């Protein structure tokens, strides 16, 4: 539902949907209020309640705490209103910030994000995930560099860390991270034991899906999917304004959906996984098979040539789009989600993927997939880190004391 239409409704929905799987992860209602005010400008409490489909009492309680903490500012009462004067509230973006960390196989992206969701700083740091290189010590050095900044440290309220592998969202525990060579790795605990701030560790797609809920498609829709294309293929889902999670963080692994009986061996140990056809290596493998690439060709060159209109590559991408569309059509038809936001390093390949993708999605006019809307987001390496910083705002104790 479009929140602008929701704002015209006479009453809010009676129940509140929140992001997360346990109370320990905090309630992002306050983050939603901040995100709304950062995009819509000053609003009074009744307007906030209608936009976010919350009870007015709930909004009063959350905004009271945010005002007491100095994160919101009350403006002059509105004149000419009937009944009790309505007091617009504005966000104070400089009052606090969070640090977002995204771990990749050879580097770490760190961003500082203000209360309005805008990135104030973005840096790339070298990183070696090998256990022998002591990855925790490397991460702590990076984070402490920001904590030691006298101009920034008083504003920092939490640290969010995003990784591309399965994470238990309540503990920050990584069961299996083949990209890094980590198994049964208590990343969250090891960082929390050494840092004075709340630390939240989560999957990078979950983090970016949360940012999309707060600042992207969530401004218009309560239900949508986030398709991440890159060295893997992931799918985030927002259902009734709730970021879907499986038990223990076992969700978003869309790339391991079986689409063929045979195929190259996937990193998960199975064959025929979707991502072996649609990720970086899958695209390069098929390009080499068709004589469109050599062993020295990398995915960056494929992107450049596809954007330039290389017809052979566009034909290849259309075929891969068919595979992707077949896998995603079932999800869309099951959930009825009207929108898909495409993110990730390979978002630039979408014009080539789209013809095959949409032809497959729209084979039946009576399905939800037939009417799906696709929105392609500009992408930068810092986006997952931004999502981690955004998610950290909802961690217990980040914004206000309970």
Essential attributes:
globular; Nucleotidyltransferase, domain 5; 3 domains; 402 residues; alpha/beta; five-stranded mixed sheet; Arc Repressor Mutant, subunit A; disordered N terminus
Oligomer kind: single chain
Number of helices: 13
Structural class: alpha/beta
CATH class of the largest domain: Alpha Beta
C-alpha termini separation: 31 Å
Strand proportion, as a percent range, falls in 15-25%
- Give the overall form: globular
Q: How many domains comprise the coordinates?
A: 3
H/E topology pattern:
HHHHEEEEEHEEEEHEHEEEHHHHEHEH
Radius of gyration: 22 Å
Task: Describe the 3D structure.
The chain has 13 helices and 15 strands. The chain has 402 residues and is an alpha/beta fold. The chain folds into 3 domains: 3-94, Arc Repressor Mutant, subunit A; 95-209 and 383-392, 2-Layer Sandwich (Nucleotidyltransferase, domain 5), CATH 3.30.420; 222-376, 2-Layer Sandwich (Nucleotidyltransferase, domain 5). The strands form 4 sheets. A 5-stranded mixed sheet has the order 5-4-3-6-10. A hairpin with a 4-residue loop joins strand 4 and strand 5 (119-126).
Condensed summary:
The protein has 402 residues and is α/β, with parallel strands linked by helices.
């Amino acid at each position: 539902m479009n929140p602008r239409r929701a704002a015209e409704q006479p009453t809010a929905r009676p129940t509140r949907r929140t992001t997360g799987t346990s109370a320990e992860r905090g309630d992002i209602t306050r983050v939603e209020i901040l995100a709304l005010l950062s995009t819509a400008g000053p609003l009074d409490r009744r307007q906030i309640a209608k936009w976010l489909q919350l009870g007015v009492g709930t909004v009063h309680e959350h905004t009271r705490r945010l005002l007491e903490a100095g994160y919101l500012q009350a403006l002059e009462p509105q004149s000419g209103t009937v009944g009790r004067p309505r007091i617009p509230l504005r966000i104070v973006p400089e009052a606090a910030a969070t640090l977002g960390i995204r771990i990749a196989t050879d580097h770490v992206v760190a961003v500082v994000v203000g209360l309005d969701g805008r990135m104030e700083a973005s840096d790339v740091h070298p990183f070696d995930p090998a256990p022998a290189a002591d990855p925790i010590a490397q991460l702590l050095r990076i984070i402490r560099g920001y904590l030691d900044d006298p101009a920034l440290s008083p504003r920092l309220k939490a640290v969010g860390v995003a990784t591309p592998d399965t994470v238990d969202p309540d503990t920050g525990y990584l069961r299996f991270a083949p990209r890094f060579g980590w198994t049964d790795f208590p990343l969250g605990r090891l960082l929390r034991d050494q840092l004075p701030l709340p630390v939240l560790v989560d999957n990078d797609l979950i983090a970016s899906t949360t940012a999309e809920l707060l600042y992207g498609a969530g401004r218009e829709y309560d239900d949508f999917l986030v398709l991440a294309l890159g060295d893997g293929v992931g799918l985030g889902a927002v259902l009734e304004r709730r970021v879907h999670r499986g038990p223990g963080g076992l969700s978003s692994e869309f790339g391991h959906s079986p689409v063929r009986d045979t195929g190259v061996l996937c990193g998960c140990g199975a064959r025929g996984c979707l991502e072996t056809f649609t990720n970086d290596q899958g695209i390069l493998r098929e390009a080499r098979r068709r004589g469109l690439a050599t062993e020295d060709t990398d995915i960056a060159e494929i992107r450049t040539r596809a954007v330039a209109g290389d017809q052979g590559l566009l034909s290849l991408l259309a075929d891969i789009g068919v595979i992707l569309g077949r896998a995603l059509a079932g999800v869309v038809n099951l959930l009825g989600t009207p929108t898909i936001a495409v993110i990730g390093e390979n978002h630039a390949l979408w014009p080539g993927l789209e013809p095959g993708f949409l032809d497959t999605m729209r084979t039946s006019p009576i399905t939800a997939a037939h009417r799906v809307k696709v929105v392609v987001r500009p992408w930068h390496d810092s986006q997952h880190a931004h999502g981690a910083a955004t998610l950290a705002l909802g961690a217990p104790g980040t914004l206000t004391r309970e």
